[in-house]
Task: structure prediction
Amino acid sequence: MQHLKIDNLHVSIGDREILRGLNLDLPTGQVHAIMGPNGSGKSTLAKVIAGHPDYTVTSGDVLFDGESILEMEPDVRARKGIFLAFQYPSEIPGVTIANFLRAALQARLPEGEELEATEYYAKLYEKMDLLEMPRTFTSRAVNEGFSGGEKKRCEILQMAMLQPTFALLDETDSGLDIDALKIVSHGVNSLRGPATGMLVITHYQRLLNYIVPDVVHVMVNGRIVESGTKELALKLEAEGYDWANEPESEAVGA
Amino acid sequence: MEGALVEGQWPAWFAASRQRGWDDFQKLPAPAAKDEKWRFSNVKALALDGFRYPGAVGKAAALVERSTGLGESAARFVFGNNRLLSATAPAVDLVKAGLVVMTIEEAATKHADLVQKHFMAQDAKLGSAKYAALHRSGPVNGVFIRVPKDLEVPHPIEIFHWVEGAGAAVFPHTLVICERHSKATVVDCFRSADDAPAFACGVNDLVVEEGAKLNYVAVQQWGPATTAFHLNSTTVGRDAACLGMQVNLGGKFVRNENYSRMVAEGARSDMLSVNIAAGDQMIDQRTFQDHAKPNATSDLLYQNALTGKGRTVFSGVIRVEPGAHKTDAYQKVRNIVLSDEAEANSMPGLEIEADDVRCTHGATTAQVDDRELFYLLARGIRPEAAQQLLVMGFFNTVLDRLPETRLRGHIESLVEARLSAALRG
Result:
């Protein structure tokens, strides 16, 4: 079993502190959900783990099996096994999905070794079938002109191809209708297993009906304020986040 | 210029034309830095001292062997230092159907009327008249192509021009006449046998008659010490379509002038260009979309990637002549700048003398988009590979306009190889 451990993490953007001492331990084989109101820092957490350059870690650590990854470049982290499914995936004009994924897989091979094209396409088509994506998708430019649902499916397709150790799914349910949500969830569930840990970030309980988490964390004002079983998500759905608001939240930004 | 000027069998009219070229060359002033048509350019790069008409290439067979391109072509001609090295004529059925592919030298006698009518019939209006005159005076060689009425040439016609040796001056010439409702693709490849300083002064003239379709691609891969002029014109007839793509990958100073004239209703001209300026390369491009008649379309898309101390200049004009109503004209130049020291200059322009026209122009200059880059990095792609992927994506939006997938793939691989070297540079 491997662990992604977040240890007393403090993160700022500019001089605004967003994560304020966050702790989390995600082992492989489990799915953890993070729920919280807008602005609680959920997306920041995902982007910081992936190495987004806009954020500054002021203290604390992110440990991949005991090793700090904070000094690692984003591409190194990704090759190590961290995957971020973006809330708003970028459009990459002129770069086809096939070429993009080929480059990502090629980057994981030892120097001098070439990706085997037949196996690559066999795997790509298998994963596309899983996500009910037509074959013509491979020759489309990454995310360009995609609907919201197509973008999210494309993120899960990438995850399926890259087989990360730890996957961070940032609001993967946003912008999805119920049919798309079912397809995406089916794709995610098929990737669950003893070798993969997933962190599912969501604003709504709805997604967790389809991707049932092992642990639910409630995040408010840059911290985990409560953790529990999947029933916690139902409580949040019924009661909202007000009960979880800390009195000291008034001090944010001071 | 020194060296043996005239070899081969040229008719009298050609000798007279050559003399006229020499007279004009001497008479016309050299470009001055303050000349608007040379704004942002580097007129100091134009000193021709030390260049000469070269002798024959040393290793003709090796150059012919290196002239690999598409694999399958309707005809293939290879020139080195202005001399024909190898000619693969079109298949017999195409020749019987009337297709003519031969050297300018041969055509100057055998198709004297046609060649004389069209040979440099378009004046160089965009600043390089002096160099057009030099071309006319020089030992030009290259290919004359006549595609007869209704014939569709099944594969591209490929032409290679090589320059070899320090100080060599070459004068590649391509003249294509697509007669009514014919269809053809022509690919010109310009290459250096070595890295020695050389001078190239090329002209190509494309004439596309009623209902005909011509795709023309020029792949410029001169060596890193070469000064090159490429002066191009297209004349597009009624309901005819000409797609011209200039791919500039090599050279030290490259001046590319593209003039396209829509001479009848329904004409369409696609003017495309992909350019990489790296190291201390300068690529200076001037274009003119000349709408002489109504209801014609021109669509220009030039894209430059700059790195190192690379420089590009784009100056383009859309001109709509009086009465050319319902003109549809687009002009777009996009620069992606990959280093602090690179410099892209863009000067789009319009001259409209008709009502009821639709013309748009624009120029953008940007760096690699940080969000796009992060997206690629977050998938484990290394920074150098990510940058290359993004720039190829940028170029693909132009290359996608090529109608033939095999040709497109071939050009893409040449661009990709050059880009990879330039980014490592």
